[in-house]
Design goal:
Number of strands: 14
Structural class: mainly beta
CATH architecture of the largest domain: Clam
Number of helices: 3
Radius of gyration: 19 Å
Strand content: 35-45%
Helix content: 10-25%
Number of domains: 2
Oligomer: single chain
CATH class of the largest domain: Mainly Beta
Length: about 240
Amino acid sequence: MKSLKLIILLLLFCTTLLRAQDPAKDFERVNKAYEEVNGVEMEVHYNVYETHSAVVSIDSQSGTYKKRGKDYYNSLMGVETLVENGTMITIDNKSKRMVLSPAHELRVADIGGMDMAKLLKNYEKIEFVKKDENTKGYIVYTKMENNRLDKFEFYFDVRTYLLEKLVLYYGRSIDLSTDGSGDEKKPRLEIIYSNVKVNPLFTDKEFAISTYVTIGKKPSVTPKYKNYQLVQSKI
């Protein structure tokens, strides 16, 4: 299972998620952009590399992210997450299982980001990068006790402050082979946000939990998903 490599890296570093040369303010403005934009749609691509300098990826996965107001939808590796009116449903299409729960506040992590503000408290050096007139970013060399990351890069569109690319250079050597027989190396994970559309036209059906379950005193799956198990969670 190639996707196992991506899962390992995302679990290893799974936390919540910065124009000028002020990383702290830019971190905040990126997060704020995702909170305040009323509508956005994009594709999110994950590429795993065996080492920091490897050119060819060993695993690639793509997903979709949509946001309208406080409602949002994302999908990756067969798992869909939908939030509508404060209720969240997670659908695992491989295991045919749904989890219905109260929604948490939208975070950049919900589309593959992380809480870089915390990392700014533990860094050795920050380099400002200007790729072109519309794209700027930073390379942050971290100083973390557990060595989870050696450094990370992030790039954003200065017109919208929405992310374009995030690169994580892991600080610990990991064997990413599926059978555990490979060599331990420091991997790299690239997350690319493409085809970004601000304020696109959505249909109500795209954010309708009723597509999956009927809400009531005792929620139940819709006929289309009759073979799925439904679990309710208060967390």
